[in-house]
Amino acid sequence: MGLTVTDWDIQYKTTARRISEGREEMKEEKISGTAKAIFGQIFNTSSENGDFTRTQRVDNEILSLPEEATQRAVNIVQRG
After folding, report:
1. What is the rounded radius of gyration, in angstroms, for the C-alpha atoms of the chain?
2. Distance (Å, rounded) from C-alpha 80 to C-alpha 78?
3. Residue 50 has pLDDT above 70, yes or no
4. Cα(13)–Cα(71) distance, rounded to whole angstroms?
5. Close Cβ partners of 60 (under 8 Å, ≥ 6 residues apart)
6. Is residue 45 within 8 Å of 51, Cβ to Cβ?
7. According to the 3-state scheme, what is the secondary structure of the chain?
8. Which of 23, 21, 1 is nearest to 11 (CA)?
9. Contact present, 36 and 18 (Cβ < 8 Å)
10. How would residue 48 be classed by pLDDT, with cut points 50, 70 and 90?
């Protein structure tokens, strides 16, 4: 049910591998492949889907969110 550490098997996989695995599972009509492929693409920073700032404007100024606030948030996440 995912409530204990032994319920989890955490592994590192590249987004390219997740996308590939997901597509293969979709060919086998496994519904879990759809989620793998979609989430792999979302987190794939080599595509515009994973890095929307390549093609879209960031509205930090409109939101009154200075760059320093964004950097602080990134630092907090990186520290854990």
Report:
1. 17
2. 5
3. no
4. 26
5. 66, 67, 70
6. yes
7. CCCCHHHCCCCCCCHHHHHHHHHHHHHCCCCHHHHHHHHHHHCCCCCCCCCHHHCCCCCCCCCCCCHHHHHHHHHHHHHC
8. 21
9. yes
10. low
Q: Is the dihedral of CA 53, 50, 63, 66 positive or negative?
A: negative
CB 19, CB 5: distance < 8 Å: no
Q: Quote the tokens at residue 25.
A: 């599972």
Closest by CA to 19, choosing from 36, 2, 42, is: 36
Report the residue count for the chain.
80
